[in-house]
Amino acid sequence: MPIIATQGLTMRFPRVTALDDLTVAVEPGIIGLVGANGAGKSTLIRILLGLQRPTSGRASVLGLDIARDGARIRERVGFMPEYECLPPDVSATEFVVHMARMCGLPPTAARERAADTLRHVGLYEERYRPIGGYSTGMRQRVKLAQALVHDPQLVFLDEPTNGLDPAGRDEMLGLIRRIGTEFGISVLVTSHLLGELERICDHVVIIDGGRLLRSQAVEAYTAASGSLTVEVDEGRDRLAALLAEAGLAVRAEGRQLVVDIADESTYDLIRDGVADLGLRLVRLEQRRHRIEEVFAPASHQAAAPGAPPAPPGAYPQGGVR
Ligand SMILES: Nc1ncnc2c1ncn2[C@@H]1O[C@H](COP(=O)(O)OP(=O)(O)OP(=O)(O)O)[C@@H](O)[C@H]1O
């Protein structure tokens, strides 16, 4: 059964159509919802939580109808909002216990669950300090903890990596992956960065201007390409020259070479070239497409097999990288 299904979901505001006839269904797992700023991601989350009534269309979450079962959906779904929503003068423990009590947990269970959840998100040591003194990364973790404290089946994480530096971003992405794999909680995570979701998601839904562009398993976006990545510890340029002389299409990319696969003999030519030059082979593998390439400008695009060309102007604001 899909954990989320929408049919013809439309949300019109006076000046803008935030969701436009959106029909999509996703199975349990870690699902990425990607779109530029203003694509309609937060609006979709609010509608799925039963907090906003759509103009038209239908949707269900965990098999529950958003029009009838909003309260039951919110009991089973955790929500980490994009906006800053934390009181500065209470500690993480006080806040997360309070949120657990709001979800109906008795006092002792609320304290235990809050402590467990704060430990899982890596905030155990600092949990008694007032939130006002926390870094952005720590505040994001408190928001994540309150979304998880009532042991939901599914969590909606709205732009959880917003404002984080690269290290903080990596840690948050690792944490989200663990929520899915170790705790078995399904995740819908939004981002305007395709690349970061590719690393942690099972399935990615891409929307633009409230319309569905793609909904696919990550492997379908990152299908094997027709080229090989070759890495040697030294002598990259000598190997490139030798392979080019043998008639292969070779180009350097960082420390690696990218070699187009002509046929089975390509592998033999690379193996023999490395041996003849006395080099040490660090890596030889078939390249996979990256999700970004699907939406790269046509001139740079190495189209995935069967993939339609990138829609022109898919991300006019350039928000998706
Ligand atoms: N309550 C509202 N009233 C009027 N317009 C709204 C309202 N909420 C959202 N919108 C508009 O709907 C569109 C989609 O907004 P939404 O917040 O869902 O996008 P988003 O993909 O989450 O973008 P962001 O990452 O910037 O939050 C935007 O043009 C926004 O200005």
Automatic annotation (TrEMBL):
Pfam families: ABC_tran. One of its GO terms (molecular function) is ATP binding. Signal peptide: none annotated. Coiled coil: none annotated. InterPro entries: AAA+_ATPase (IPR003593), ABC_transporter-like_ATP-bd (IPR003439), P-loop_NTPase (IPR027417). Belongs to the ABC transporter superfamily. Residues 4-234 form the ABC transporter domain. Keywords: ATP-binding, Nucleotide-binding, Transport. The keyword Transport applies. CDD domains: ABC_DR_subfamily_A (cd03230). It comes from Actinomadura rubrobrunea. Residues 296-305 have a biased composition (Low complexity). The keyword Transmembrane helix does not apply. This is ABC transporter ATP-binding protein. Gene3D superfamilies: P-loop containing nucleotide triphosphate hydrolases. Residues 296-321 are annotated as: Disordered.
